[in-house]
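Forwarding the complex inputs:
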Amino acid sequence: MTDVRVTVNGATVSVPIESNWTLLQVLRDRLGLKGTKEGCGVGVCGTCTVLLDGQPVSSCLTLASNADGCDVLTIEGLGADGRLDPVQQGFLESTAFQCAFCTSGMIMATKALLATVPDPSDEEVKDYLAGNLCRCGTYIEVLQAVSRARELARSAS
Amino acid sequence: MANVTIGSSVRRADGLEKVTGSAVYAGDIERPGMLIGKIFRSTLPHARIVKVDVEEARRLRGVVGILTPEDVAALPHPTYGPFLSDQPVLALGKVRFVGEAVAAVAAKDEETAEAALDLIRVEYEELPAVLTPEMAIAEGAPILHEERVWPHVVWSDLKSSDYRPGTNTCSVFHLRKGDVEAALASADVVIETATRVPVVQHAHMEPHAALAEWDRAGRLTVWSSTQNPSVIRAQLAEIFAVSHSKIRIIAPYVGGGYGAKAHPRIEPVVAALARKVGRAVRIVLTREEVFLTVTRHAAAVKIVSGVRRDGTIVARTVDALYDTGAYADSGPRTAKNGGYAAPGPYRIPNLRVESSAIYTNKMSAGPYRGFGVPQVAWNFEQHMDELAAELGMDALDFRLKNIVGEGDEIATGERLHAANVRECLVRCAKAIDWSAHPAGASRQRPLPRRLARGKGLSCHIKSTFTPSLSLASGRMNEDGSVVIYSGTVEIGQGARTVIAQIAAEALALPYDRVEVVLSDTDVTPYDQSTTSSRSTFSMGNAVLGVAVDLKQQLMALAATQLEAAPADLELRDGMVTVKGSPGRALAYPDIIRARFGAGLGALLGQSTFQTEGGKLDPATGQGKASAFWFAAACGADVEVDVETGSVTIRKMAMAVDAGRALHPLNCDMQNEGSLMMGLGTTLYEEMLFDNGQPTNPTFLDYCLPTFLEMPTEFESILVETPHREGPFGAKGVGEVGLPAVAAAVGNAVCDAVGVRITELPITPEKVLRALSARWEIEAGR
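Prediction (whole assembly, two chains):
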C-alpha cells in the first residue's frame, strides 16, 4: 500500500491505497462520500462524474494514484453555509431528477460545463452532457435546470 | 373543502436529498462487520453440474465463507419465483443460462471476493441448449425443466393460464370469443402481419444491490434495491422457513427499476450467504451482471384480421410466443396480459388468442415497463396501418371507426370505463398535424432523393395488476402534522410527493405538514408492489382511507367539544369548523389536546384498499381482467434518410389518460421516461447472443438514448377522464405510454419510405435493406 494525498472538497487527506484502486473506491469506501454513484464501471454512463482539478472525470476509471496532489470536488462539496450551489438549486427548482441515481454525476458535469461555457445553448448542453445517461429520461428537465442554474449563477455574481 | 394541493405540481418531497447526493440507496448502506459478496456464474447456457470445487477459494486469506449448491439443496425450500417456484437460489443439478449463479463468496473486501471467484472450479457436462422459443417448442427439443412444479404462490389471476409441466411451454393463455373462422371466411379483406422484438434490458442506472444481516435471535433484515418488499419477504420466509414477522425488508431510495426490481433478484443468495457466514453481507452487481439478471421478453407475434370493405373489423387471431428464458419469473402473467391486449383498443366480436411463455436457455425475462404490451402493440398497431392501406382508408379514420369507448365491451368481455383512448389518439394526431398529411400514399409515391418525411400513430389500452391490495396507516401528531406509513417504494416516480398530496388534500392541511415514511416491512403495512402503475390508484386509495379515518376521528371529537352534530362539521385550513359558522372552529392540536387532557398524544388511522377481479375463464379468457384500464396514444413525425437509412424523430406526441393528474409534472415526466425508453427500444437497443452467450452486456456495446437522441420536439398530453374508483379520479401513468412508441415510429417510417420494418430495433441497416428490396422490386416491374 502507498499513500495518496488528495484535497477532497477542500480538506486534504492522506489515504493508504493499493495501486489498482480507483478514485471512486477511495471516495465511497474509504472516505464515506456515498453521493457519488457507480453506474457502469467502464466510464460510459457519467454517473460517477467528479471534478479533478476542475475537470470532469469518470471516477470509476480514474486510478486513485493519479489523483495524488489533486483537488477533488464531489457532490458533497457543493454549496456553502447551508445554501445550495446554483446548479443544485437549478436542478431542485426544475425537478431535474426522478430516481436520481444519475443526478450527482449530472450536477457535477453541469458544474464543469458552466465553469467553461457560462452561457451555453441547448445544443451545447446536450453535446456536453451526452456522456451522462438518465434512464428515467429526465433530459428535458435537466436542460431547464442548466438554464435555471445559469440564471442563478448570474444573479449571484 | 378547498383544493390544497391536488392537481398542482408541488415541490417534490425527495428533491433536497437528491440534489445534494444525500439520498441513501441500498448499495450505500454499511453494517458493522459487513462482508462483501460476489457471485460465481455459469459460463454455459445448458449443462449438468458434475462438480463444484471451492476448496482453493475457501483457503484464500480474507475469504470468510462460500455458499455452494450443496448448502442451497439443504435449505427448507431451495427455489423461489413469485409465480412458479422454479428458480433455485444457486443452480442445482444443472445450469440453464449463461450467468446463472453457481456459488457465492463472502470476503473481507471486494478484491478478495473477486480473487476467490477465480479459484472456484466447476466441472460441467454440456447439454444441447434451446436458444429461441421456436427451437424450444420443436419436436424433440431438450427440456429445461424435466420435473416442473405446479404454480406455487398462486395469484388468482394466474389460474387463467394453462400450464404444461414437463415441456418447454411454461404457460399458455387462451382467449376465445365468437366464431373466428366463420367471420374470417366472410371478411372482404384478410391480412396477416408477423413481427418480432428482441431481448432488451431495463438498464436502470442503479445496479441491483442487497445487504442481508441475521441477528443472534434468528431475525433477518434485508436492505434491498427492490420494487417489491412484501414479495421479497414472503419468498425469503419460504426459502428459510421462518415466519414473516422474523423478516424485515427495507427499501431505501431505489435508483430505477422499470420492472426489473419487481421480483426477488439477488436477495435470496445474499440472505443465504449471510446466514452461512453469520455476518452481514452486501452484494452490489456490476453492470455486466445486471444484464445477466433479468431482461424484457423477446417475442414473436402473428396477427390475422378480417375486415369489411366499410372498415369494420370482424375477426382477429393472435399467436404470440414470449421468450421467458430459463425460469418463469413473470412469464405467465406477461403472456396473459399481452395476450388480451393484442386485440387492441378495438371492438372486435370474433377473437382467438394464444399467448405463450416459453422456456429457453437465456437469463429470465421479467416485468418491464408496459408488461407484455410493447411486444404485441408493435404488431397490432402496424397491422392497423396495413389494414387501412389495404382498404384505402386514412389510418386515423380507420382506427376511430373501430375504437372502444366508455361502456364498450373489450376483448375480455368486460366494459371499459374511464380509459379515453379515442381522445388520446385524436390529440396525438392533432399534435403532429395529421390532418394536413396526405395519408396512405407512400407506397405508391416515388421516394425523395434524400430525406423522406412520414407520420405515424399508435394507441392501446392496458390492464393493471388485479386483484390488488394496499394497506396504509397514519398518525396525526399533537401539533396537527401528519405522518403516513406507506409501503410504496420511492423509485423516482414521486410516490412520497403524491402520497403526501393526497393526505394533505383530504385533511385540509398544507402539503408540507405531511411526511411519508416509505417501505420498511417492520413499519409500513402490507402493500402488494410498486409496479403496474398501480400505486396512485391502490396506495392512493389506501392513503385517502387513512386520511378519512383520521378525519372522522377529528370530527367525532370536535362534535362533542363544539356541541355540534358531526354531519354539520367540515375540515378547513387545519381546523374542524361548523358549516356556515366560521367562528365555531377547533384547530387540530386543540382537539387532540382536549382528547387526551395533555399536550402530547396522537390519533392513529388505518385503511385497507382492495380491488376485485383478475380471474378469467381459462378456456375463453373472459371475465374482469383489470380493476381499471390505462389508455395511451403516440404520434410520430419522422424523417428517414434514404441514403443512410437513419431515422430522425422530428416530433413525438404522447397522450395518456391520467384519470386526474394529481401532480401534472410527475405525469409528464413519466411520459418523458416512457418516451425515451420507448425510443431506445424502437431505434437502438437489442441484447445480442452467440450460442447463448450475451455478447454486448455493457454500456459500451448496449447503447441507451442520450441527450443527443432526444426528439427535436416532444409534446406530453394528459387526458383526464376521472375514474369512479380512483382517488380524486386518478389512475397511474408510469408505464402506459411506452407500448405505443414503437409502432408509431414504425408507421411513420413506413409512411415516409413505404417499407415495413417488422423486427425491432429499426436500425439504419434494416431500413436500407428494406429500401433495396423495394427498389429491386420496382426495377423489376
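The radius of gyration of chain B is 27 Å.
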